[in-house]
Structure formats: C-alpha cells, structure tokens
Design brief:
Pfam families: BPD_transp_1. Helices cover 74% and strands 3% of the residues. The chain has 17 helices and 3 strands.
Length: 407
C-alpha cells in the first residue's frame, strides 16, 4: 500500500512552512512599503511650471532629480520600505520612516535647484502627488514606530522640539528657497508672521472663552438631569450649524453692537473682523469642553467621594481637591479636541476679515495659486499637530497624578 499518508506528507529538512515566512512580515509596514513604492515609481515626484498660475509638467523622480540624487533617493527610501515590511524593533521602524522623510525633504530641494534656471524668478517647482503621498506615508511609518516605543511625556516634547528646531534651521539655510511655496513666502514675508500670531491668538482665545463658560456650566448642570440634558442638547444643536453659516449669522448682530454699544467699536466688535471669528470658534468649542467636563466628573469613583465626605470636606473642597483633579485627564482631552479643531476652523476667519492663515488660503484660491494655498494650509497643519503632541503629553502627566490620588 506504500507509506502512510502522514509520512508521505511530512516536509523534508529544507521545507519552510509558509506560515513561518508570513510571521516575519508586518502587515501595516507592508502597506506602508507598498504605498512608498507606488508613490516613487508610479506617480510623478515634482511638477514644473513656467509661472505661479500656469499649467505645469509632471516629472517622475528620475527626470526631476540629478542622476546621482535620484539613485540615492530611490535606493535609500527603497531600503527603508524593505525594513518596514519586516517585524523589526520599533526603533528601527522609527529610523526607517525618519530616513525616508529626510530623503524626501532633500529631494524637494535638489529637484527645485535642478529644475530652476539660474536667475529665473518666475518659474515654479512644487512637489507633486508622488512626493506628497510618500511624505505622508513616511510620516505615518515614523509615527507608528514612535508610538510602539511608548515614549513618555518628556520624550514626546523633546521629539517635537527637535523636529521644530531642525525644520527651522533647514528653512533658514535657504536650501528650499527655489521651491514654489518658499517663493510665495518671500512675497508675503512682511505679513506672514502677523497672520500666524492672529491665527494662534484666535485659536487660544476661543478655547479659553469656551473653557471659562463651558466648565462652570457643566459643573452646575451635571447634578440636575433635566438641566444637564438641556445644556448638552442646546450645545449639540449649536455644533451642527455649518461654520460658514454661523460666521455669516454673526455679522449683523455684531455690527449692531459695534454701532450701538458705547466702546464696543473701540474693542474691535464689528460685523467683520476678529469678533465674529472669536464668537463662532468659542461656540463650536463649548460642546466638547462641557461634555468632557461631565464625563470626567461622572468617572470619579463613588468611594473616593464618600471618603472625602467622611473626612469632613465641604462640597467646594470636594470639587476642587478631589473631583476636578481626578477629572483633569478627561478635561484636557476635551481641550485637546477643541484646540486642534479651532486651529483648523480659524482658517475660515480669513473670509470675514478676521485675519489668520486663512488669508493666504483664500487669496490662493481666488488667484488659482495652489502654492499660496499651501502657505496657509501647511503651517495650520503644523500648529495643530504640535498642539496635539503637547496636550497629549499633558494628558499623560495628569493621568499619572490622578492615579496617585486614587485609593
């Protein structure tokens, strides 16, 4: 009858089970590697235009870069992509993603210098779809590696500071001066700093106003179910109003206040300008702040409250010494949500004369100048990302302190 079936099917000494091979691959890293390969080999890396609004010519990596630079970029980014497919240590994953980011930054500068004729002030060179996709994927890969390392709050802030310093030094070096977005910055450098300060001011002040109103309102309404439902229901309705509609609805009443109330115009209250932007942004921030306050207070353990009452604490003492400190992580989470949200929404202030980075976004749209749009959009993304990192670190610290307070 021959050998038994089990004997005939036993693998030889050189056979390798497919499961063992697949076990060495990282699923997410494999997706990252595939997208990196697609972006650099199948999509154009840069786009060249004769001026800021003319149609451009898309160029692949080997056409946009000098030969040596193209080999370096494709080789090193390809090696980084190969590392990402494997189950390597998180530090190796972080290094692979960071290396790809560095090479892509260098590639943009090299391509701009290579494609811009000497002395030409009108031509424009910008990253195209392949560069943007590769940059986003490399950033996600680096972020994935950093997250797997589980860095503490201090490490997160140090990493953010290092990235900020390196980016600032690179911008000041002039390496990217031939890129179109830097040429747009050169043409708006006299107003750029002012608009950034206005943008940050609108975001921070609106979150402050929302916290000063939303936190006390939530504390007062929380113990009364009907009042709590009414507060959160009203704020939920307010949140559903489209941002453009809310900005427009505020123009007429604020214009009336500016005309009719003595001293209001001197404070900057008018139908257009920062006032409607500040009111609208504050209104949008109220629901997350109030909901986070209610959720944080609800999560305080009952035995902790009972113990505080048992040692003779008054209601005010329990609130400020027990409830709010233990609810602080949830509160900061709400603040994080609204700050990142309002940094993005503050762009719309440019439509109502409120200033900020939205000025460049809407100027670019009206002029069909994509790089001018990016001059407003990219700093907005950077501000939101940096704010998220800082508040994530603050949340981690507050959770540690909350755990110390818990029994």
């Amino acid at each position: 009858m021959g050998e038994p079936f089990a004997t005939r099917m036993r693998p030889g000494p050189d056979a390798r089970p497919a499961g063992r091979i697949l076990a060495g691959l990282d699923p997410m890293g494999t997706v990252f590697a595939g997208l990196l390969s697609l972006s650099l080999l199948a999509l154009p890396l840069m786009i060249e235009r004769p001026n800021r609004i003319a149609a451009g010519t898309s160029l692949m990596a080997w056409s946009a870069l000098p030969a040596a630079a193209a080999l370096a970029v494709l080789g090193i980014v390809g090696f980084a992509a190969a590392l990402l497919t494997l189950r390597v240590a998180p530090s190796v994953r972080l290094a692979a993603g960071a290396s790809a980011l560095l090479l892509l930054g260098l590639a943009a500068g090299w391509a701009a210098d290579h494609l811009t004729p000497p002395g030409d002030r009108y031509s424009r060179v910008s990253p195209d779809a392949g560069w943007w996709l590769a940059f986003v994927v490399a950033g996600l890969a680096a972020g994935d590696g950093l997250a797997r390392l589980r860095p503490g709050p201090g490490t997160r802030i140090a990493a953010l500071a290092a990235v900020t310093v390196l980016a600032g030094l690179a911008l000041r070096s002039g390496f990217w001066d031939n890129l179109s977005i830097m040429r747009e910055y050169a043409g708006h450098s006299d107003t750029f700093g002012r608009e950034v300060r206005i943008h940050i001011g609108l975001a921070l002040s609106s979150v402050t106003v929302a916290a000063l109103i939303g936190i006390p309102a939530a504390i007062l309404a929380r113990p009364v179910p009907a009042l709590r439902r009414t507060l959160l229901g009203f704020l939920n309705i307010l949140q559903t109003i489209p941002s453009m509609a809310l900005f427009g609805m505020l123009i007429a009443p604020l214009a009336w206040i500016g005309r009719s109330v003595p001293g209001a115009a001197e404070l900057g209250i008018a139908g257009i300008g920062p006032a409607p932007a500040l009111v609208a942004l504050s209104a949008y921030a109220l629901l997350p702040v109030a909901a986070a306050t209610v959720a944080g207070l609800d999560a305080v353990p009952g035995p902790v409250r009972d113990a505080a009452q048992g040692v003779g604490m008054t209601g005010r003492q329990r609130l400020f010494q027990v409830d709010l400190p233990l609810a602080l992580p949830a509160l900061l989470t709400g603040i994080r949500i609204v700050l990142v949200q309002n940094i993005g929404l503050a762009v719309i202030a440019g439509l109502v004369g409120g200033g900020g980075l939205g000025v460049f976004v809407f100027q670019g749209i009206s002029q069909n100048a994509g790089d001018l749009v990016l001059l407003g959009a990219l700093p907005t993304v950077a501000l939101a990302s940096g704010s998220a990192v800082l508040l994530d670190a603050a949340i981690a610290v507050s959770r540690g302190r909350g755990a110390e307070r818990a029994p």
